[in-house]
Structures are given as structure tokens and as C-alpha cells.
Write a structure and sequence with these properties.
The complex is a heterodimer of chains A (251) and B (117). Chain A is an all-alpha fold. Chain A is built from 12 helices and no strands. In chain A, helix 6 (95-126) crosses helix 12 (220-250), helix 7 (132-143) runs antiparallel to helix 8 (147-155) and helix 11 (205-215) crosses helix 12 (220-250). Chain B contains 6 helices and no strands. The chains are: A mainly alpha (251), B mainly alpha (117). At the A-B interface, helix 2, helix 3, helix 4, helix 5 and helix 6 of A face helix 1, helix 2, helix 3, helix 4 and helix 5 of B.
């Protein structure tokens, strides 16, 4: 009786269920490690960073899913479940809250998306990317680590570019968490109005929540109010308006 | 029932993706144009309607809330299946892009905060 062979048959035969355990353990370790930073760095950013490390360990074009034992992660993290889960996050957004956000909130959202697009496209172009699909996907990644892959998948970007876009989003998220307490005073981040602007400009929900909490926990809901709409607006505008804009400029 | 919420979410998802494909075809690009965004808009509108008029009860809402809670784990799974080995050469793009994005964001806070809503 070969127990190892039998076990791996069970794990491979039930790939998606195996993925739940793998990702569950990854999250557990990531959130425990984030806890050591006393909430300064949010667990989600650490977990996504761990995900990228797992992809590196897996090697190959499909990351961790290249290893047959972990192929189920490819289904869990594939386009279908990903987009389904992203759509579900819109649930809980209260239409009355949207009205409260007001003109400044909307304006900060618009500026947040435009500045991300500029930052991503400028850096990607400077470092040798020329096709509008890659440029726009990296710009979307600077918006957030979710808008990047959603845009990349919609436009048909390569997995390599999508990985870069996720990494750019994680870098931004972590930077917002760490830097916010230091620059808060300097940029006048001390009232509900500027907190809402901050949420709309930065967009990364985990980044703004953790960063804002380090400045003043009472302001977290204001920052979250606008940040909540950022990913949705990004998923709507990056594969459309921003893609056409990129195409118009770079062909 | 929990499945009602999941079904509503699935309906919004499929409708949004379909709209994105149709819009892509209309605009003559081989891409799904904003499908996920349309699906989110639809879910916001329908779930608000459903809660206000009572047909989306607590149990049904749990069906949507579960997937919402699975969002970060699924994003972690998504990260773990990317071609990171090939992307490493572009790691500088990710770091510089992230830094520039954050810098521009912070720079605009004082400018936009002064405007009155």
C-alpha cells in the first residue's frame, strides 16, 4: 500500500478543495506576520505578496499551478472565480452613501485613476514597453492590484505583464500603509473631507484603511467611503476609456 | 435562502460580462470593455432595491457576503498563478510605478481638499 501515492491522488483529484487549504494556510501565515507589524501593514498585502512568491516557487508560465499537486489553485485564482468575487464586493455599497460622497469624492476618484494611469504608463514606457495593452494593464495595476489583472484579462495581456501589474498594486498598497502616517500632517490629512479625498486618490482599500488608522482611526470610514468605489470605477474605466486613450496616444 | 443571493450575484456577473463583450464588439476591439464594472453597478442597484423592498432577506445576503469575504483569498490564489519568473525582469516597473502612483496621489490631496464639496 503506497500511502503517498494514494494521498497525492486524493489531493490532485480534488484540486479546488486542495487549493482552499493551500490558500488558507498562506493567508494564516501572512495575517500572523502582518500582526507583528501592529496593524501597520495589512495582512492582505502580505498574503498577496506571498502569493507572488508561491508563483515564483512554482516557476513556469502558470506559477504555482504548474505543479500538478497545486493545479487547483489555477481554478480558484482563475478569471471566473476572480471576477465573480470582485463583483460581489460591490454588495454592501449603500446608494445613500454614494450620494454623500459628493462632488469632491467623485473628483478625487477621477484624479486617482488618472494619476495611476499616468504613473504606470510613464514608467512602463520609459522601461521599454510599447504596446498599448501592456501599458494600460500596468497603469491599471498602479490603480490597484485588482484593476490590473481584470484589465489585463479583458485586454488579453500576457501573464508576465499581469504579474507586473499585481506587483505594482501591492507596492502601492504597502507604500500607502507605511507612508501615510508620515506625510499626513504635510498634506493636511486631518479632517473628514481630506480623508475622503485621500481614499479616492489612493483607492487601495487595505492600504488606505491601514494607513488612515495609523493617523486617526476616526477618519477610516471617510477614507473607506471613497476607496470602496475605486476598484469598481477602475474595472469599468481601465479596459474602456483608459485603454482607448492609451491606444490613441501609443497606437 | 442563501442560493437566492448567489443566483442574483451570478445574474449580475453574467449580464455585466455579456454587456462588456457586446460593447467590445460594438467598438471593434477584441476585449471585454468594462464588464466587471457593469456587473458591480448592476449588483449595487439590484441589491439596494432588494433590501429596500424586502425580497433580498438576511439569508440571501449571506450568499453574496460569502463571496465578498473570499475576495482576498481568491486574489492571493490569482497572484500565485502568474508568470512571476518572467515578470521579475520587469520588477523595476512595478516598484517605480507604485512609487510614482503614490507620490502623485499624495501631491493631489492638498489640492483637492481645498475644493468645497
Amino acid at each position: 500500500m503506497d500511502l503517498t501515492a494514494m494521498l497525492s491522488k486524493v489531493l490532485i483529484g480534488n484540486g479546488l478543495i486542495t487549493a482552499f487549504i493551500v490558500i488558507g494556510i498562506t493567508n494564516l501565515i501572512a495575517y500572523k506576520m502582518a500582526g507583528l507589524t501592529k496593524g501597520r501593514i495589512h495582512g492582505s498585502a502580505v498574503a498577496i505578496f506571498f502569493g507572488l512568491i508561491l508563483a515564483y516557487i512554482g516557476g513556469g508560465s502558470k506559477g504555482l499551478a504548474t505543479i500538478p499537486l497545486f493545479a487547483g489553485v489555477g481554478l480558484m485564482g482563475g478569471a471566473m472565480f476572480r471576477d465573480f468575487a470582485i463583483v460581489s464586493t460591490a454588495f454592501g455599497a449603500d446608494l445613500r452613501e454614494i450620494k454623500k460622497v459628493g462632488a469632491v469624492g467623485v473628483l478625487s476618484l477621477v484624479f486617482g485613476l488618472i494619476t495611476s494611469w499616468i504613473a504606470g504608463v510613464a514608467v512602463a514606457y520609459a522601461l521599454g514597453y510599447r504596446d498599448s495593452v501592456s501599458l494600460c494593464t500596468i497603469g491599471a495595476g498602479v490603480a490597484t492590484f485588482v484593476v490590473g489583472p481584470v484589465t489585463g484579462a479583458a485586454l488579453g495581456a500576457s501573464s508576465e505583464v499581469i504579474a507586473i501589474s499585481i506587483a505594482a498594486g501591492v507596492v502601492k498598497s504597502v507604500l500607502v500603509m507605511i507612508l501615510t502616517p508620515f506625510v499626513a500632517k504635510w498634506v493636511g490629512l486631518d479632517n473628514p473631507q481630506s480623508a475622503m479625498v485621500f481614499g479616492g486618490l489612493m483607492g487601495t482599500t487595505s492600504g488606505t484603511a491601514a494607513g488612515m488608522a495609523a493617523v486617526d482611526p476616526k477618519l477610516v470610514p471617510y477614507a473607506a467611503m471613497t476607496a470602496t468605489f475605486y476598484t469598481g470605477s477602475g474595472c469599468l474605466t481601465f479596459p474602456s476609456i483608459f485603454y482607448f486613450l492609451t491606444k490613441a496616444i501609443f497606437g | 435562502m442563501v442560493i437566492y443571493g448567489v443566483a442574483l450575484l451570478a445574474f449580475c456577473y453574467l449580464t455585466g460580462i455579456f454587456l462588456g463583450d457586446v460593447l467590445g464588439a460594438l467598438l471593434g476591439v477584441k476585449a471585454n470593455v468594462g464588464g466587471v464594472g457593469f456587473a458591480m453597478l448592476l449588483l449595487i442597484i439590484l441589491s439596494n432595491k432588494g433590501i429596500d423592498s424586502g425580497w433580498l432577506d438576511k439569508k440571501s445576503q449571506e450568499g453574496i457576503a460569502f463571496w465578498s469575504a473570499m475576495y482576498i483569498p481568491i486574489v492571493v490564489a490569482m497572484s500565485s498563478i502568474q508568470n512571476v519568473v518572467a515578470a521579475l525582469s520587469g520588477g523595476v516597473v512595478a516598484i517605480l510605478g507604485g512609487i510614482l502612483g503614490v507620490a502623485l496621489g499624495f501631491a493631489f490631496i492638498p489640492i483637492l481638499s481645498r475644493k468645497k464639496g
